[in-house]
Amino acid sequence: MLKDLPLERVYQFIEPGPTVLLTTQAPNAKPNVMPMSWHMMVDFEPPLIACVVNQSNHSFAALKETGQCVLAVPPAELVETVSALGNCTGNDTDKFGVYSLTPLPAAHVVAPLIGEAIVNLECKVKDTTLMGTYNLFVMQCVKAWVNPKLHDAKMIHHHGFGHFSVDGEMLKVKSKMR
Ligand SMILES: Cc1cc2nc3c(=O)[nH]c(=O)nc-3n(C[C@H](O)[C@H](O)[C@H](O)COP(=O)(O)O)c2cc1C
């Protein structure tokens, strides 16, 4: 027998892409970073990624002002740090300093890359049409970096309220796509 699923729990089943760290660099401020799991791919090339960043976050203001960010994919080993980064704000915390993350200069944006990340995506805001309604920014990835030392690292996926899953077995099946 199927049971009723409360609507406020729907996101826990749809959400789990990799949890990413969104970095920003507002003028006259320290670099900042927030975990984000409400995102989706919108196009292949150039890569477009839709991101929901709550308007009460420091990151929202920085993103709106600079139109730039980095999306960094953390390895599973950083799960405690990821959770902690989401429970404080750049309005009053130097998150890179407190959580010992390594900011590295990006090539095309002012926001920093994260040295500990598996992949860093330099992004520019492409479309804010739905920013006012849904806090939704469409980002265009203009440069991507991969950390060869973390080739086998696992990503984490957020299931809400401090629950994460870790990448499991990789399956390869026939596909007409590259
Ligand atoms: C795993 C995880 C995923 C999160 N996903 C999002 C998200 O997709 N969008 C969002 O606005 N906040 C999300 N949050 C909450 C923000 O990270 C949190 O509000 C953070 O403190 C904002 O930091 P800031 O004020 O420095 O920008 C998430 C938090 C965690 C722990």
TrEMBL record:
Listed GO molecular functions?
FMN binding; oxidoreductase activity, acting on the CH-NH group of donors, NAD or NADP as acceptor
Q: Tell me the ranges covered by the Flavin reductase like domain, including all copies.
A: 13-164
**Cofactor(s) it depends on:** FMN
Listed A to Z, the keywords are: Flavoprotein
- Coiled coil, from the record: none
> Which Pfam families does the record cross-reference, listed alphabetically?
Flavin_Reduct
What InterPro entries does the database record attribute to this sequence? Flavin_Rdtase-like_dom, Flavoredoxin, Split_barrel_FMN-bd
UniProt lists the family membership as follows:
Belongs to the flavoredoxin family.
**Stated name of the protein:** Flavin reductase (DIM6/NTAB) family NADH-FMN oxidoreductase RutF
This chain's source organism reads Acidocella aromatica
